Amino acid sequence: MNALAATNRNFRLASRLLGLDSKLEKSLLIPFREIKVECTIPKDDGTLATYVGFRIQHDNARGPMKGGIRYHPEVEPDEVNALAQLMTWKTAVADIPYGGAKGGIGCNPRDLSKSELERLTRVFTQKIHDLIGIHTDVPAPDMGTNAQTMAWILDEYSKFHGHSPAVVTGKPIDLGGSLGREAATGRGVVYATEALLAEYGKSIKGMTFGIQGFGNVGSWASRLIHEKGGKVIAVSDITGALKNTNGIDIPELLKHKEATGSLKSFNGGDSMDPNELLVHECDVLIPCALGGVLNRENAADVKAKFIIEAANHPTDPEADEILSKKGVIILPDIYANAGGVTVSYFEWVQNIQGFMWDEEKVNQELKKYMTKAFHNIKNMCQSHDCNLRMGAFTLGVNRVARATILRGWEA
Ligand SMILES: NC(=O)C1=CN([C@@H]2O[C@H](COP(=O)(O)OP(=O)(O)OC[C@H]3O[C@@H](n4cnc5c(N)ncnc54)[C@H](O)[C@@H]3O)[C@@H](O)[C@H]2O)C=CC1
Ligand SMILES: O=C(O)CCC(=O)C(=O)O
């Protein structure tokens, strides 16, 4: 099942639990606007290269649409659509005043030079600048993009609309970015994990973790888990995977990755088959890379007791069913990785106020939002006798449905 079919399915299940009217259901499902643009750039060698860029704006009932921009070879309309829809439910679960959107360009950023990436980002921004904005749609980083990408979007957008720091979040601090945003998704994952484990009388200290992906989210989650006394016993990224039953020294691995750009040849662990990571023996598995990685091929072999979905839609519905039957507890993406967009909201608020918070305040507020959302999800689980994924979906969908009904449809 592709990402969009899977997301639609979860939405419909939640809608049935909430007893939503079928016409309202249809209106919530269909995206507000779908943008597809051609982006041609001269490469460094003078040849031309054409890429396709997307921005899907899913829903704006609760506020400006919000979501990241992904640079990855597998970016295609159905996946961006699914990710945009997930943003709508995620911002509602986090209870921040936004709707949902997502964008992306089908490209491999590892094959492009920095100046090629800059040209591509600027062309994409030229094509969408009149459809995004501080109060309409606010992009942010996602896979394959970062603070530098946001700086280029901000600069290009500002040529058309004047200096507008709040048009993107996840910016460099020097351009109005928020302290704590870079770590926020990983930090939010850790707060979410603590909230879940506490329900089972457990804590991060002493538990074992397997982490797929060592980019922004995976590396921050690993670092913070390590700091809290958790044992990261397996990690992987696109360059390979490694394991160490005594726990990997994450600060050393970060230095190695910084120096070599790769997880390979790190002498603090043994290399392993990257496909093994998801089925490796550990207490908590945290996918922090691509979607659909847990599926019917590997779900039955997963050994973890808890899965924290730091990536977006890492678990397809078939795997969801298999894992539930095995008694694996899954903390769903629209809650588990909401720390990033929550601190993006704090960044946007700071830009609009023209005031900067210190990092301690950012982290404290983030913890408050993550903890409150967890308890709200649990209440929905009790009210609807459902698992955490449906608890989160019913919470998010219900808030968006209420806002939509209140706004009405009169022309
Ligand atoms: N950056 C953010 O603030 C947020 C990101 N997310 C989600 O978290 C996930 C990761 O995003 P980022 O860390 O930002 O991206 P990133 O581009 O910084 O890192 C991605 C990581 O995944 C690894 N990877 C790629 N293909 C892989 C494969 N086949 N096997 C193992 N590892 C692989 C890469 O090597 C890299 O380490 C994505 O699903 C994204 O949508 C969710 C919420 C917010
Ligand atoms: O920070 C943001 O606005 C969005 C982050 C994002 O793309 C996500 O949560 O999947």
From TrEMBL:
Pfam families: ELFV_dehydrog, ELFV_dehydrog_N. Gene3D superfamilies: Leucine Dehydrogenase, chain A, domain 1, NAD(P)-binding Rossmann-like Domain. NAD(+) binds at T185, N216. PROSITE patterns: GLFV_DEHYDROGENASE. CDD domains: NAD_bind_1_Glu_DH. Substrate binds at K66, K90, S344. The active site is at K102 (proton donor). Keywords: NAD, Nucleotide-binding, Oxidoreductase. It catalyses: L-glutamate + NAD(+) + H2O = 2-oxoglutarate + NH4(+) + NADH + H(+); L-glutamate + NADP(+) + H2O = 2-oxoglutarate + NH4(+) + NADPH + H(+). One of its GO terms (cellular component) is mitochondrion. Belongs to the Glu/Leu/Phe/Val dehydrogenases family. This is Glutamate dehydrogenase. It comes from Gossypium hirsutum (Upland cotton).
